[in-house]
């Protein structure tokens, strides 16, 4: 309920007038006390008080006063929290704190006493409001354990603190109805968690298990919470938003599909939302935060890495909702318990959250494989019934151009990442002063965590153990339907892990599904697929059939109309030239365009933002070439090759299950040959399929997947040349692949510098590990029998054979990709 100077705007109505009322007054100054007192004297509680017959008691909203004068009352008074709310002056129809307000050395939302004396005569700058009331009996029912402590002749403090917290929460909700949901901030978080009987019991168990004293465990938990909890400030949020907006206002034009926000707003009235955006830039959180604030969403609690907690960004970010979590917990059970409890608390209180589930910014431009740690905590909260449900929101943030790509490319080619700090921040702000076109923000369909976990076989029972934050990556698959009552703890934990992995997969697919194709993605896609410079007309010729393909599939896209005429296309290429991604030679008869020397990684970054839309087409092309070149059944060979390529690329792209993948392949074939279903196996479903592929006007294999297979080939050849007895240090092995990859590039065994990438080599190593090729076969000398020695020798020979065979397979794929490139009309030399 909100009331303003005796004019009641009542949000709830009670059926009967209570016999007595207690007004819990949240006042920080004598001015606020007088304003509340005057309001009460003017019958401000008219909605609850019948004339003058119902007595009203005023108490400070303080645990001590509540413990002394309210907790022990034998009647059942109605408890009504009351507060004075101060409002900034209205500017252009918006009440928001500005830097100009700071010139008065006061916060207009919390003015000092001198300012309050001046503002109390301005009716539009303050109001008295009430939070939702509750009977004392209802408060006892809502806090049974704390009330029981007092009822058993114990202390009144826990129950009094619970009443105080409930009053503050009620006032915060009432205040948001006035100032907007974007100012939803949590209060008294650490205090409430440390008062939780369940959490205290968990700390006692940790103390018993570790041998530490309960006092020491409690002290460490309190320290962890104070380090973890985001102390949000409405003042800092207002000022930080205004400070950061100009930094990027001249850089990007934000393009948001606001239609995706309407269903989210409806869901948010019942469930907490967890926004899971793609992570391409440090600016992602600012862009998304600004979009949500402009649409009056409450601020997200953004889970961030400790690398960004440096001064002054760290303290500011914490006051705008950033939660900095330690990157490594080790065996610190107390900190793990604190993180899990804080996580569940935020969800239970319906605070929205945000994190970048890829575990860091993409270095290649495409979505990285997900990390499961924080999703495990979310699932644990759902299983433990701490929250009814959580809605996961896939978010795509796509930039036409990024001014920080140079540093990303340097890291990809083996350079060291520069640590974040004041110098880094100054460079970053300076780099954002160059125009970079559009940034597209798109919201995918929200996923019910409870529904999707259940669908993927999660038994949704309370976890038998504390789930570690960083769990090992596993290839996700749908778990079998089993009777979980007959499973032991390890089996249940395995089902839970698989369900979380499948959920993460769905989120990634949701992001990709709404990611639009930008003009720069297509322009770089065209130029990366040729080994010569193209005229403007030739670039248009390359793009025309691709634009037709995009239309047929109704793929999401940016302003691609700019690519259909020469003037618009010339502007796009000029902008890429200014970004030093494209070079333009103007000394001849007409300008010709090509990728800037040394800028292939940057160009690939733009292309890769949309590359997932063309992977199925690229796989089909290679499958067609495999089938045509086979001496056996060409159709069977083609299907076998398609599934093999899907397996080889599973750590790079998010492929659907086999049945849906097969449907995708068939749909792609029908785009090439609409009569495909009418062909018989006898005529190989169209002997001229290669001609139809060429007639389609474009070939994608060499443009889309060559760099990934080339990187896999580097890793495969280094493994084939390695002694099976040698242990593999992954960091050093990656450095070796970078060095050898550069040599292979100079020898023209690799086709582009984008293949020499630490990110691609890391994924290739995951693939090799998945195929058992990182195994080490060493003779420990424990058994020197002839049979044991022969067994070791056999295992080594077998590992060498499999490594060599893996490299041979990739060489064969490389040959087919080269063949695909020769079929591409854009690679035909002009006469």
From TrEMBL:
What keywords would UniProt list here? Acyltransferase, Membrane, Transferase
Q: What is the protein's major site of localization?
A: membrane
Membrane topology of the entry: Peripheral membrane protein
Q: Cell cycle as a keyword?
A: no
A Pfam family reported for this protein in Swiss-Prot or TrEMBL: GPAT_C
- Name the UniProt record assigns to this protein: Glycerol-3-phosphate 1-O-acyltransferase
Q: Does the keyword Phosphoprotein apply?
A: no
Q: Where in the cell is it found?
A: Endomembrane system
Top-rank lineage group of the source organism: Bacteria
* Stored InterPro entries: GPAT/DHAPAT, GPAT/DHAPAT_C, GPAT/DHAPAT_LPLAT, Plipid/glycerol_acylTrfase
The residues that cross the membrane are none
| Coiled-coil blocks | none
The chain positions of domain Phospholipid/glycerol acyltransferase read 273-400
Q: Which NCBIfam families match?
A: PRK03355.1
């Amino acid at each position: 309920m909100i009331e303003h100077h005796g004019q009641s705007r009542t949000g709830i109505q009670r059926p009967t007038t209570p016999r007595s009322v207690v007004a819990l007054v949240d006042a920080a100054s004598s001015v606020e006390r007088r304003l509340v007192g005057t309001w009460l004297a003017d019958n401000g509680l008219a909605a609850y008080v019948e004339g003058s017959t119902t007595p009203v008691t005023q108490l400070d909203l303080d645990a001590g006063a509540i413990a002394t004068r309210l907790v022990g009352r034998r009647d059942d008074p109605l408890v009504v929290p009351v507060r004075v709310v101060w409002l900034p002056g209205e500017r252009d129809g918006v009440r928001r704190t500005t830097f100009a307000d700071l010139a008065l050395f006061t916060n207009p939302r919390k003015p000092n006493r001198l300012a309050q004396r001046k503002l109390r005569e301005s009716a539009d700058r303050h109001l008295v409001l009430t939070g939702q009331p509750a009977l004392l009996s209802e408060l006892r029912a809502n806090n049974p354990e704390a009330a029981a402590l007092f009822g058993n002749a114990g202390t009144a403090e826990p129950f009094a603190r619970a009443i105080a917290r409930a009053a503050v929460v009620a006032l915060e909700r009432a205040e948001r109805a006035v100032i907007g949901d974007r100012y939803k901030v949590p209060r008294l978080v650490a205090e409430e968690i440390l008062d939780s009987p369940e959490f205290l019991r968990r700390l006692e168990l940790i103390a018993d298990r570790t041998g530490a004293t309960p006092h020491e465990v409690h002290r460490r938990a309190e320290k962890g919470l104070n380090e973890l909890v985001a102390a949000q400030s409405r003042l800092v949020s207002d000022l930080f938003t205004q400070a950061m907006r100009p930094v990027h206002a001249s850089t990007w034009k934000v393009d948001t599909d606001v239609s995706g926000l309407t269903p989210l707003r409806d869901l948010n009235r019942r469930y907490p939302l967890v926004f899971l955006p793609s992570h391409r830039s440090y600016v992602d959180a600012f862009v998304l935060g600004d979009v949500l604030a402009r649409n009056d969403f409450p601020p997200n609690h953004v889970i961030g890495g400790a690398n960004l907690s440096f001064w002054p960004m760290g303290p500011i970010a914490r006051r705008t909702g950033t939660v900095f979590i330690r990157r490594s917990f080790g065996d610190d059970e107390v900190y793990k318990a604190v993180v899990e409890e804080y996580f569940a608390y935020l969800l239970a209180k319906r605070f929205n959250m945000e994190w970048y589930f890829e575990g860091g910014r993409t270095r290649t431009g495409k979505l990285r494989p997900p990390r499961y740690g924080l999703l495990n905590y979310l699932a644990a909260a759902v299983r433990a019934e701490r929250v009814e449900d959580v809605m996961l929101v896939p978010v795509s943030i796509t930039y036409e151009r990024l001014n920080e790509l140079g540093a990303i490319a340097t890291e990809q080619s083996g350079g060291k990442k520069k640590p974040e700090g004041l110098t880094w921040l100054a460079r970053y702000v300076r780099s954002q002063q160059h125009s970079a076109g559009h940034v597209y923000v798109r919201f995918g369909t929200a996923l019910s965590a409870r529904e999707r976990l259940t669908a993927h076989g999660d038994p949704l029972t309370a976890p038998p153990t504390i789930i570690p934050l960083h769990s090992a990556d596993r290839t996700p698959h749908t778990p079998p339907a089993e009777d979980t009552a007959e499973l032991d703890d390890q089996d249940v934990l395995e089902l839970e892990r698989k369900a979380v992995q499948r959920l993460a997969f769905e989120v990634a697919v949701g992001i990709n599904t709404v990611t639009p194709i930008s003009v720069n993605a297509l322009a770089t896609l065209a130029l990366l697929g040729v080994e010569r410079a193209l005229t403007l007309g030739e670039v248009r010729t390359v793009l025309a059939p691709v634009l037709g393909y995009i239309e047929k599939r109704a793929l999401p896209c940016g302003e691609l109309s700019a690519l259909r005429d020469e003037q618009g296309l010339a502007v796009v290429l000029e902008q890429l030239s200014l970004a030093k991604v494209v070079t333009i030679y103007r000394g001849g008869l007409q300008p010709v365009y090509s990728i800037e020397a040394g800028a292939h990684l940057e160009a690939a970054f733009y292309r890769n933002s949309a590359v997932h839309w063309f992977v199925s087409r690229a796989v089909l092309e290679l499958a067609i070439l495999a089938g045509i070149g086979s001496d056996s059944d060409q159709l069977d060979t083609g299907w076998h090759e398609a599934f093999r390529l899907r397996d080889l690329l599973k750590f790079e792209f998010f492929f659907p299950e086999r049945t849906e993948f097969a449907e995708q392949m068939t749909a792609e074939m029908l785009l090439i040959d609409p009569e495909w279903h009418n062909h018989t196996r006898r005529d190989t479903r169209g002997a001229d399929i290669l001609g139809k592929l060429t007639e389609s006007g474009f070939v994608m294999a060499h443009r889309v997947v060559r760099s990934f297979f080339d990187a896999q080939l580097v890793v495969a050849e280094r493994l084939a040349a390695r002694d099976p007895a040698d242990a593999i240090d992954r960091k050093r092995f990656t450095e070796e692949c970078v060095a050898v990859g550069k040599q292979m590039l100079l020898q023209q065994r690799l086709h582009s510098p984008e293949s020499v990438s630490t990110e691609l080599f890391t994924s290739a190593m995951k693939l090799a590990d998945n195929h058992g090729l990182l195994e080490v076969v060493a003779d420990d000398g424990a058994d020197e029998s002839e049979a044991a020695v022969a067994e070791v020798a056999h295992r080594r020979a077998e590992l060498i054979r499999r490594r060599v065979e893996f490299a041979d397979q990739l060489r064969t794929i490389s040959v087919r990709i080269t063949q695909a490139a020769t079929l591409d009309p854009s690679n035909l030399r002009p006469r």
